[in-house]
Design a protein that fits this description.
With 256 residues, the protein is mainly alpha-helical. 62% of the residues lie in helices and 5% in strands. A three-stranded antiparallel sheet has the order 1-3-2. A hairpin with a 6-residue loop joins strand 2 and strand 3.
Length: 256
């Protein structure tokens, strides 16, 4: 017995983001970045599980959403000329509005294209094409071809090839960590030990990327009110504890 799984196809990452926004009736000027980021990354993971090649623009947009999500967790320090705080989502919203404007014009352009294709061209196309061919003397040009012209063409081709090879190449690295996985790991450690020092996390995940993901996971958990923070004894150290009322809330849900 075989079954087939199909994912909806989108023309680009902005098309996918607009789909989420319109489906959930969200305010495009006040995007819930946590919800949109999780749904966007979940779609990419589904494509990877089905062995569908993920385009680079989707990966770049996912990285941009993660960067905006991290900025939303941190205190905002960037301000405009008038002293107002700059919303990290501002640039994304502007691009989405522009994309939506151009997308809304596509049906009108398609209708105009269909009307134009339905019109009959004036004149005799075959005779006009024959006149153009006779005016360019293709056979004469082939007879006039020499080694110098061939070398010139070869030189231009090689120049274009070198330009293509020297163009900047962007390498996408997939790290072995995710914020969701590190959040679950930290939560399990807190429940087992009742409290965990940040220095202990550094000792268990000593690499730089692991520390960054752990720090972002802690900020995310604070945002969700899953943990609490206390000042530690060491230099620049702090203690992670379970948030007050969280355990009682989980117990109540299990009883119900």
């Amino acid at each position: 017995m075989s079954f087939e799984i199909r994912l909806p196809l989108f023309e680009g990452p902005f098309d996918l983001l607009l789909f989420f926004i319109e489906r959930d009736e969200l305010d495009i000027h006040d995007i819930p970045i946590f919800q949109i980021t999780n749904e966007f990354v979940g779609y990419i993971r589904q494509m990877e599980q089905l062995n569908i090649e993920v385009a680079s623009d989707f990966i770049l947009t996912a990285a941009t959403l993660m960067r905006i999500k991290a900025k939303m967790l941190l205190p905002r320090t960037e301000k405009d000329e008038e002293g107002n705080e700059i919303d990290p989502r501002q640039e994304l919203v502007q691009h989405l509005l522009e994309y939506k404007k151009f997308k809304s014009a596509v049906p009108n352009l398609s209708e105009m294209e269909d009307l134009r294709l339905a019109q009959e061209n004036r004149g005799n196309i075959h005779d006009e094409l024959q006149q153009i061919a006779n005016a360019n003397h293709f056979e004469y040009e082939l007879q006039d071809l020499n080694l110098y012209k061939i070398m010139r063409v070869f030189e231009k081709v090689m120049t274009r090839f070198e330009e293509e090879q020297n163009r900047p190449k962007h390498t996408v690295i997939q790290y072995a960590y995710t914020i969701e996985e590190q959040r679950d790991i930290i939560m399990d450690m807190v429940k087992q030990r009742s409290q965990v020092a940040f220095s202990q996390l550094i000792s268990e995940f000593p690499d730089k990327i692991g520390m960054i993901f752990n720090f972002l996971a802690i900020l995310d958990m604070l945002q969700l009110n899953l943990i609490g923070i206390e000042v530690g004894d060491g230099f620049n150290d702090f203690i992670i504890t379970e948030a007050e009322g969280h355990a009682a809330q989980v117990t109540q849900l299990l009883v119900e």
